[in-house]
Amino acid sequence: QVQLVESGGGLVQPGGSLRLSCVASGSAFRLFGMGWYRQAPGKERELVARIGYTAANTEYADSVKGRFTISRDNARRTVYLQMNSLKPEDTAVYYCSTYPPGNDWGQGTQVTVSS
Question: How many CB atoms lie within 10 A of CB 40?
Fold first, then answer.
């Protein structure tokens, strides 16, 4: 079981940037692929980006390619999501979890992109 705590969300204007962080418990963190997911009101949760356990492999949803960057620091048991050029359609609650996702989810962090 992995406990996950997301942070870094907030209100930002279109075109702005945010950096999300997710701290995981447990020394096995470095063995897991990790992902950032988001869920907008009335929509299903979707994968935004994922990163392999060595950070060598990353993959992004088409909607965020070129704007978002996922990274990880295994020593800090933390995975990050740098979000640039934010759009109103990026508004959602953002969660991190393992990839593939299991039963462990954090509380999420709200990202609102609005002028």
Answer: 14
